[in-house]
Amino acid sequence: xxxxxxxxxxxxGDFTAVDHLDLTMTQGVYGLxxxxxxxxxxxxxxxxxxxxPTEGTITCNGxxxxxxxxxxxxxxxxxxxxxxxxxxxxxxxxxLYIAALKGIRPAVxxxxxxxxxxxxGLANAAKKKMKKLSGGMKRRAGIAQAMxxxxxxxxxxxxxxxxxxxxxxxxxxxxxxxSEDRLVLLSTHIVSDVEYIANEICLMKDGxxxxxxxxxxxxxSMTDGVWKCTASKEQAAFLMKKYKVSNMKTGAHGIELRxxxxxxxxxxxxxxxxxxxDLFLYYFGEKAGEDHAAI
Amino acid sequence: MLRFELKKxxxxxxxxxxxxxxxxxxxxxxxxxxxxxxxVEENGNHISGPAAARxxxxxxxxxxGELTEEVFKEVIRENAGINAIGQEDRTLDSEKNDSEKxxxxxxxxxxxxxxxxxxxxxxxxxxxxxxxxLAFCEMHNYDYYRADSxxxxxxxxxYERRISGLKDWFESEEVKGSFSEQExxxxxxxxxxxxxxxxxxxxxxxxxxxxxxxLPTLMMIVVLIIGFLVSGIFSDEFLLKADxxxxxxxxxxxxxxxxxxxxxxxxxxxxxxxxVLLYSLIVLGALGFGGGECAVQTGLSNWNSIYNISxxxxxLLTVLGGYVGCLFIMTISMLVSAKTHSTIFAITVPFILxxxxxxxxxxxxxxxxxxxxxxxxxxxxxxxxxxALYSIGGKIFGAVSVMIPMYVILFxxxxxxxxxxxxxxxxx
Lengths: 295, 428
Description:
The complex is a heterodimer.
Chain A: E1 3-12, E2 15-25, E3 28-33, H1 40-47, E4 55-60, E5 63-64, H2 65-68, H3 70-73, E6 76-79, H4 91-101, H5 106-119, H6 135-147, E7 153-157, H7 165-178, E8 183-188, H8 191-197, E9 200-205, E10 208-213, H9 215-220, E11 225-231, H10 233-242, E12 244-251, E13 254-261, E14 270-272, H11 276-292
Chain B: H1 2-10, H2 13-35, E1 38-40, E2 46-48, H3 50-60, E3 65-66, H4 69-100, H5 105-122, H6 126-136, H7 158-171, H8 181-193, E4 199-200, H9 204-210, H10 214-230, H11 232-239, H12 243-248, H13 255-287, H14 311-340, H15 343-355, H16 357-360, H17 364-370, E5 389-392, E6 395-398, H18 399-423
Antiparallel strand pairs in B: 1-2, 3-4, 5-6
Helix pairs in contact in B: 1-13, 2-10, 2-13, 4-5, 6-7, 7-8, 9-13, 9-14, 10-13, 10-14, 10-15, 11-14, 11-15, 13-14, 14-15, 14-18
């Protein structure tokens, strides 16, 4: 299985959401990391044939996915960011309906639905109406629908957004389990999600890939260092203006800062190992700060 | 897939409420229609509904058969006899009342009761008496008492009067210049084609069903409620944000779209026919199925009709036309839903197409074009007397003969467009 993007571009009027992307994906987990508005969702929608590119193509094993139509979509499992459902349907009915949409024969669908309901931990909620489910349960129903056809390509758009820490860890583990033998593309602005499960990460900014590689490769690409130091209130204010600060903690001896800088910011600053969160801040700067608040 | 599409529509609480409303309208409409049939008992009291229908049937079927010259003579004779007796009774009562309780409310009530008693004697031939009124009055100038002034010799010209009345009407100031010579000949031809003598029997069940405003009103409500149900079939995917999963599924852009169209078609068909047939069965069951083979011209509302059909054929034409109109209106509503992704816009379509034309039709310059609007398909039974004519390829056709095929064709063209529009939808 090989999915290729060739000069992929999507414009909405004058705004270019996705700008000449080229990428080849094979089996494995790909993390798409970027701030809100970077073009991740637009890219995923094009990969799911929900949007037609303005320029460029997406090919699956050399064939244009738009021309493949249903033959491509039968390989696809998709969990969108705004996961919508039919509120009056029970979980079971909802999954049976999606199974029908995916062209799964009723007898097979019933078996598969039962199996997936149990796998995502919704066995006790199978007869519950979708509108009665908690946010985490809805997401699990969402991943179950994406997995119904045992897809070769699994596309997950911000799958852990809005989940509490427990649910997020649980969901992350579930995605890890499901990622065997398939191509998984996971988009998020939550760094820890991709850090744990992605084999390859693409950093996306203003519709372009600014960097791609493994977590280690990306971190080693940073030319600036990560420093940790304790500063007074006045010093901290000055440092925050001058450097990108990835963490800040007020303690008994002053304010402990973690920042990214080419030179040593203070004489007593200590060099630290860079993490993916530092990298995120390094590439996305101030915009990333807002999103980091959610991590 | 179709089952789930239907379930999506029928499980929505608002749609359940709409169905309950439809059931209530059906019940109320049936009751009102049945109660419209009234009978005056010998003592002057009115009764209505199935009991009235039984009495009327008994009285009217004494006149069952072909309406020949002899029958009209008999009706004129009997009507004159009853009028004479009534006149005597009224004179006696008047003298008695004048001497006893002049001017009191009781006096008025007694007079009404007496008048009712006289009317009760004419109920058996009241339909034929009305036909005499219609035949011997000027067109569109109905006089209820015209039959009272007819002599038995007039009976011979009953059928001729219908045609000569039409010809006289063409010469009147009212319509001068409204019809071309070809149109006049077409209308006269249609009048001449009517099979005479007319066959008559009790048909008050059919008349209550087809000659009243209840059926068109019910059809309009059915259209509005079905519109409410089907308007969300396509747009709700976007409203619920279920569009991404729907369109990214294997059959999201082919079979699933067909299923949605199928769900719309099934809902329209089942609800329309369910309500219309149930209503018809209730009304005819209560008032009687007899008289279906009588020509529509035997009814007060259709004397001037150019459509030479029976009440049963009128029924078939009306319900079939209503179905075609309903299909067309719902197709437009679903198309708007599929194109705009807005349920609100889609819901307004049936309102615009059914409720607005009657008002716009009052604007003189729009009157003619409005006769071709789909709301007319829901009122075929009320339009049988219309002289709306259309010339196609040099041939003249009545509006009903044009509209049903026209809307069948339009439906056939537009329905597949829904598929074409929806399968190309982009999720932005």
